[in-house]
Specification:
This protein has 208 residues and is of the alpha/beta class. The chain is built from six helices and five strands, in the order βαβααβαβαβα. The chain is globular, with a radius of gyration of 17 Å.
């Protein structure tokens, strides 16, 4: 089994990377491989809502000059994924926002019932908003989210300072172990317990 971890920080080896690395170590202890992909430093176009991916072969995004299609493809094929973002002005980073809008608009149907978590790194405040924003993507794509003892928030600003946040690091370690457990439960039960019955989606506009 494998997990894709998305580093949404412009700092490739900064605190967000350090937290994802710690989670990868916990997953490795359970025999699960993790690949950390850095998208925070990429020049990513925002989603234009053109709808191209709805009808395109393999639901690929119309913009092909960045990492989106390749990275989203790895997320589709993985058993689970982690979304990691620093906190900028009480929200996720700009490049991460562009990535998530396009990745989830084109790939949500491939993410259904995958195990997924969001983590936020922050200097002082605003991180709970980041967690809520990340959870919006995970909730709307019908992913399964492993629990922990608190929000997946880790504090730090200077390089690797997050490693000194004992409670925050414990929280994400527990989340990673819960992710490993849930992945194994799903793998064990896949032959005997089918996914819930599906219905054709009904969409109701509130403005008539």
């Amino acid at each position: 089994m494998n997990v894709i971890a998305i580093n949404g920080s412009p700092h490739k080896s900064g605190n967000t990377f350090a937290v994802l690395g710690q989670m990868a170590e916990e997953l490795a202890k359970e025999g699960i491989d993790t690949e950390i992909l850095h998208v925070g430093g990429e020049l990513l176009h925002g989603c234009t809502g053109c709808g191209h991916c709805r009808s395109a072969q393999d639901n690929l995004c119309v913009f092909t000059n960045d990492c989106l299609n390749e990275t989203a493809g790895k997320m589709r094929r993985a058993n689970g994924f982690i979304l990691g973002s620093p906190t900028y002005y009480g929200g996720i980073s700009g490049s991460m926002k562009c990535f998530l809008d396009r990745a989830f608009y084109s790939s949500s149907k491939y993410f259904k019932y995958k195990v997924a978590s969001g983590i936020a790194v922050v200097r002082r405040a605003g991180s709970v908003d980041v967690i809520h924003q990340l959870d919006n993507y995970l909730q709307l794509s019908e992913t399964l989210r492993p629990p922990s003892q608190y929000w997946n928030v880790v504090y730090g600003r200077s390089d690797a300072e997050v490693l000194k946040d004992d409670e925050g690091m414990q929280t994400v370690r527990k989340n990673a172990r819960a992710m490993a457990w849930l992945l194994k439960v799903l793998d064990f039960s896949k032959e005997s317990i089918p996914f819930p019955a599906q219905e054709e989606r009904v969409m109701t506009n509130f403005i008539r």
